[in-house]
Design goal:
- With 118 residues, this protein is α+β, with helices and mostly antiparallel strands.
- Helix content is 33%, strand content 31%.
- The chain is built from three helices and five strands; from the N terminus they run βααββββα.
- The chain is globular.
- It starts with 8 loop residues before the first strand and ends with a helix.
Amino acid sequence: MPMSEPVLGAKFYRLASGGEPVRDWLKSLSKVDRKAIGEELKTVQFEWPLGMPKVRKLSPGLWECRTALPGHRFARVIFTICMGNMILLTGFFKTTDKTPLTELKIARERQLKVKGWK
């Protein structure tokens, strides 16, 4: 049962240029897909910490929010946590059993910037 206040805030990772890649990705999706992904992210916000099947830890400080979509499609949003907020680093459709290395690399690079390590 969700709490009345979220455990975590939610923020989009912002590029130096001001763009927000996850927000842009979400805007490119259908209303049905956006709603499903948004509901899963909201569940994470209100019920953190969570494990499988909704959230899977990828590496220290990186997790993926997992969303099953109509048509046997699977969306993932990789996030980190910083100062009480889940920072949405990258979003994509998963087409294989493993998380694509390119998405992991992007998420790790963005995580370093968020944490001030790079």
